[in-house]
Amino acid sequence: MDHAPRHAAWDRRLLLASGALAVTASAWFFLVFALGAAIPALVSWLLMPCGAALAAGLCHRAGADPLLPGAARRFWRRMSLALAVLTATMVSHSYESVAAGVTTRVGLITGLLHAAFLLLLAWPLFGLPMAAGSRARRVTVGLDIGVIVAGAAIFCWHFVARHLFADTAAGDVSIVTSAGFLITGSIVVVGTAKVAVTGAGSLAGRSLTALGAALVAGGLGVALTPLLSDRPALDTTLLVVPVSGFLVALGAARRAGPRGAGPAARRQRHSPLLYLVAAATNALLIAVVVEDSADRIPVTVAAVILTALVVVRQLTALRENEHLLGRLDANFLELRHKEQRFRLLVQNSTDVVTITEPDGRIRYISPAVQRVLGLAPRPLVGTSIVHRVHPEDRATIAANVGHVISRPGNSATYQVRLAHADGTYRTLEIISVNLTDEPSVGGVVSNSRDVTETVQAHERLSYEATHDVLTGLANRALFAERLAASITPAGPGHRISIVLIDLDDFKTVNDTLGHAVGDGLLVAVAERMRAGIRPTDTIARLGGDEFAILFEGLGGAAVDRVLGRIAGALAVPVDIDGHLLAVRASFGVVDGRGGDDAGNLLRQADIAMYEAKERGEGGCQRYRPGTEARGAERSRLASALLAALTHDELVLHYQPVVTLPEGRLTGVEALVRWEHPTRGLLGPGEFIPGAEQTGLIVPLGRWVLRTACRQAAAWIAELGELAPGTMSVNASARQLREPGFAADVAAALTDSGLDPHRLTVEITESTAVGGGATQETLRALRTLGVRLSLDDFGTGASTLSLLANCPVDQIKLDRSFAPVPGPDLIAGAVLQLARAMGMEAVAEGVETPAQAAKLGALGYVRAQGFHFARPMPPEQLGTGIVTDGFSALAGSLAARP
Ligand code: C2E
Ligand code: CA
Ligand code: CA
């Protein structure tokens, strides 16, 4: 408070004045006492009322101190009132004494004022609140007061009252005044005894001491009265009032000192006092007996009563103590039960309870640590387990512990991994609370729960939800999530690349070698692709044999280089269950940037991937704007072709194969056409590639086979010897990889009743070098008795070893080698080769008589081409045969030079 220092300064000044006055008054008093009339006693009489006034003033100030509790202020106010009356008393006393010629004199007014002062003095003492307690306690307090009052009374009687009454007749003091003094004095003593016994909690201890000293000084001063009987100018009040007044002033000035001691100290205070009183009384008794004084009877009676009171008081206290001890025992027992209950709870809890010092050292750790971390609890005490924290979790624990220890009451919940004794890590969920300011704990309490299984289950679940179980790669959901995240924030400066990857021929592996090998191959492929990218890129398996890669901050040539490396890695044969398998894949790439639409990018990558597939196996294609149209066209064609198959819009035309040089019909090749409802008759070049890509070639090829076989059988049935000797059917690579192809051929033959030897299946060179499935199908076809023909011979990467390993019955020289005028090496060489290997050679695309003649001259005996006949509908061919017009026509053409 602002004026507190000023307050204190005034208190100090007043106190100083009071002290100086007390010293001066005492000195003067003793000078007068020692030197007698040589010193004017008047000074003492003038100083005395001033001492009372100063004390009253300081008490008044204490009574107005807002910092004191209400009870203390009340006490000081009453005290100042009593001292004001004392001042008046002393003024009156001085006046009467001085007026009587400076000789001590107590008139009626002074006597009454004195009595009023003592009564008023009792008021603050009685007014101090007494500590409440049990009935036994109140009885004890009553007895204590009784003992002190009895002790005081007997001393008072022996030293003062007895003489007062004895002097009454001779002195100026009336019996009334003396009685009044005694009564009021007794009341003050009782009040004092009460304060002494019960304490005064609301008063400062130092104030109480000073007040006690004032009372003692007052009492002692009064006791000195007999010494002054021969000094009429002096009165004990001349010494007592300034000294006691100073002590009271001191008490008032020290009002704000440390508050009175606690309840334990207050309980103790009366005991020594009690024994002191008893001892003093017994000492008085001895003195009285030795002196053989006149009042040894009342002193003896008083001493006996007092002793009896002390005994009763002690007995009561003893009983109370016993009672208290019993209650204490009960409380203690209950406490022990409580403590035991908590201990058992902590010790048997599955959670680890730890109390640590703020520096991290363990003070207590519950036995559960043995189960959770495999560590004995005892050796851990005094150590820290920070070194057991997983290195990645050190920052977490530092941040949380730092927060907790920064202030009492702080708490934190966090998860860290701690090393188990077996070397594994357990995940603990820890709740730490700072209880350093809690005296019963004085540390950081942590409750740690082992949540390893929960966390693992959670991780497993979220892993399974976002990963492909077989390969461990991200799944479609996670890929979409990463893609969305990669294009969301970064703006157009942030580049990304999406690559869609489709394995070529994977279905064949799955179908022919079994799913186990297929799965093994997928795992191997996933590993090789993952090895080829950075850890920051995302590779996902979208399903089946489809994969996707998301490159962040990478594009253009850099991505192409990565894909080149991946393609190279995939091409190296890998051993899966004893099968050496090499993989080729088609890559569709699209470059994107922040802000692009994820759906669009994926669609564009898909278009690029289809283009890559279309261009040939193992290709890589970057998306080019505008290619959507082709993709759309292709999908439209696919659905239209499917409709065509079911609506019988497909037809077969047959092109004759003739003998050279006669031009006699020896066989036909079935060539498919689409009678498109709006676009007219479409050649195979317009829809076969699309059918191959979409897989529709399989049902389409099945239809061609059945129709061709049925037609061949029909011709045989109809024309007998005149019917075409062989029926050639084209089969694409995709069909031959289909494991059911040989069975389809067998079924077509059985259903039509056609002799297998009359059916020739035409395959291209690239088909012939296809994987194991193709080879198996070819073998199965040969086993059926079906003839095989190598189409477009010379255009592919034919090798002699191919011919040796894939035995065919016929080779068809591609039309690009149909000889032009002049010597022709290739046509001749191919014929030589065919003859050497025991195969039939057919020359294709013969358009001119010159070509026919030359081929004939080279030694070719089979030919096909517009020169002889174009592909034609079956009824047309049939008519030609019947009328023999065709043969005639063919013959005439062949003969032409
Ligand atoms: P290909 O197997 O080489 O069939 C012969 C192609 O050459 C036919 O074309 C035929 O019309 C054409 N041609 C015949 N003689 C001559 C000639 O003197 N000069 C010229 N320039 N061309 C001649 P088309 O019918 O358009 O068939 C094209 C290709 O379509 C066929 O080539 C064959 O690979 C494929 N194809 C046709 N039908 C089928 C089928 O049913 N299934 C499968 N998988 N492919 C088929
Ligand atoms: Ca052909
Ligand atoms: Ca051909």
Short description:
Helices cover 58% and strands 15% of the residues.
Keywords for this entry:
five-stranded antiparallel sheet, binds ligand C2E, single chain, disordered C terminus, 897 residues, binds calcium ion, eight-stranded mixed beta barrel
Notes on the structure:
By secondary structure, the protein is α/β, with parallel strands linked by helices. The protein is built from 31 helices and 21 strands. Strand 4 and strand 5 (443-450) form a beta hairpin. Helix 2 (42-63) packs parallel to helix 8 (236-253). Residues 168-173, 258-269 and 884-897 have low confidence and may be disordered. The protein binds ligand C2E and calcium ion (2 copies). Ligand C2E binds next to strand 14, helix 22 and strand 18. Residues 791-792, 812, 844 line the site of one calcium ion.
Q: Oligomeric state of the chains?
A: single chain
Number of E-state strands: 21
Low-confidence runs of at least 5 consecutive residues? 168-173, 258-269, 884-897
Largest sheet: 8 strands, mixed, barrel
Q: What topology, given as strand order, has the largest sheet?
A: 13-14-16-17-18-19-20-21
Class per helix and strand makeup = alpha/beta
State the helicity in percent bands. Answer: 55-70%
Ligands in the model, by name, code or SMILES, are: ligand C2E, calcium ion
Determine the strand fraction and express it as a percent band.
5-15%
3D shape: rod-shaped
DSSP helical segment count: 31
End-to-end Cα distance, whole Å, is 137 Å
Radius of gyration: 63 Å
* Average pLDDT figure: 83
List the helices and strands and how they pair.
Elements: H1 4-35, H2 42-63, H3 70-99, H4 108-127, H5 135-167, H6 175-198, H7 205-223, H8 236-253, H9 263-291, H10 296-348, E1 352-356, E2 362-365, H11 368-373, H12 377-380, H13 394-406, E3 411-419, E4 425-435, E5 443-450, H14 452-466, H15 476-487, E6 495-504, H16 506-513, H17 515-532, E7 538-543, E8 546-552, H18 556-571, E9 574-576, E10 579-581, E11 584-593, H19 598-615, E12 620-622, H20 628-646, E13 650-659, E14 665-676, E15 680-682, H21 688-694, H22 697-719, E16 726-730, H23 733-737, H24 741-752, E17 759-764, H25 765-768, H26 772-784, E18 787-793, H27 800-805, E19 810-813, H28 825-837, E20 840-843, H29 849-858, E21 862-863, H30 874-883, H31 885-895
Helix pairs in contact: 1-2, 1-8, 2-3, 2-8, 3-4, 4-6, 5-6, 5-9, 5-10, 7-8, 9-10, 16-17, 17-18, 22-24, 24-26
Ligand C2E binds at residues 655, 670-672, 683-685, 688, 701, 704, 730-732, 762, 791-792, 815, 845-847, 865-866, 871.
